Known about the structure:
Elements: H1 3-24, H2 26-40, H3 49-65, H4 67-83, H5 89-100, H6 102-128, H7 131-135, H8 138-149, H9 151-160, H10 166-175, H11 180-190, H12 192-203, H13 205-215, H14 227-250
Amino acid sequence: MSEGGALLNEPARTETKAKSGLWRLVPIGVILAGLALSYAFGLQDYLSLSYLSDSRAALKAYVGENYLLSAAMFIAVYIAAVAFSLPAATILTVFGGFLFGWLAGGMMVVVAATIGACILFLAARSAFGGFLRDKVGGRAAALAEGFKKDAFSYLLVLRLAPVFPFFFVNIAPALFDVTLRTFAAATFLGIIPGTFAYAFLGQGVDSVLDAAQKSGKQASLSDLVTPQISLAFAALACVAAIPIIIKKLRKPPAGEV
């Protein structure tokens, strides 16, 4: 092809690249639109302990009469809540334990939360994948590379000890070029202890809600979470961090083979 022909095709290539870049933003745009619509319609009001307190008898009755449909609806709502980054994962896990029992509810939550997290992860990776690797240097680049090498262990620690918001841990790995398989596996395994702990709390939430009503106050998550559970999460995170620490300690000095 002549030089003139190449110059004529350059605008077409630029336009194609721009369109491709815009399509990469579509998934994250859908996520943001879903989040905005959720708040616009006040869906967050239905994902609270106060709503559970006011509607628990009706919800329990509906689940008893329509168990399979209720389970499917619960899983769908949980997936959407996680994918749209609604701050309701813990409350919904309590709902699951209350409505379906700690075992069945916990299993539903683990599956739904993993699916929802993967959807958000893929949307973020589509829009921003490779950003840190390509745009930054120094410590941030070193962190990105280290996260990529030990992604499973890093993610497992973050999942076991919920120090950061759930949605943040869903998005951040996409910026560090983590694979979907690694993300899904670490998410699935890492959320199991916390999920079943909160589902178990949900199974006994009736007494907490009754006590709150008698005292004339609204129940909150702090009424459910005990210091022992918090310490258990911290201990699990420490155990998960041991392989990372050992690997760092055994790393040979610079220049040594």
